[in-house]
Amino acid sequence: MKIYTSPVSPFGERVRIAALAKGIEIERAPLPAEGIKKGEYLEMNPIAKIPLLVTESGTVIPESEAILNYLEDRFPSPSLRPPDPEQRARINIAIRITDTYVMAPVIRTFPHLDPATRDGRVVDREIGYWKDGLSALAHFMRLPMPVAEAGVSMADCVLPVSLHLSERISRILGIGDLLAPHAILVDYYSAMQDHPIVGKVLEELTTVQDAYDAAKSR
Predict the structure, then answer these.
(1) CATH topology for 85-217?
(2) Is 0.90 surpassed by the pTM of this model?
């Protein structure tokens, strides 16, 4: 198997956490020099996004959630899912809320990160959605998140790197720490930073993203 991704992509790092927890080797394929919006890559993935997993048989799997589900189905042990259906539902809820109501507005601020070209009205609107998403996520995480055989759950592959991006973008926008009002999210994120697998990925993600941001500002 090989994966097309970038070391600064939190979506690609979701897959990396899962692979590390399961002990799976996935080759990291270099992104094409021409970019992902043209040529051979676009033919493989007309969505023109990363990550993209290509299996040994040539099956192409886009979208991090679809890739995580594939890896779980193909390599069921150790599992990223708890055995109880209700606990699995809680994990699925946390992932869906994170992607739909937190990550989506965060990503929609990307065209406005540069103060010189920022539309304040758009940013303010998205920050409102973003805050609502974090509040909803905290609501459904009032109980401790379920654990899984792999030592991390599917939610632990998704949420920490997403909260990491939330912190990074809020810092760039100068809007303060949006996690701070939600002790549940703060405590969860702090615990994940101390996890031997997730913490390592978060630390390396911080390093490469800081270097990326510094290079862009030159």
Answers:
(1) Glutathione S-transferase Yfyf (Class Pi); Chain A, domain 2 (1.20.1050)
(2) yes
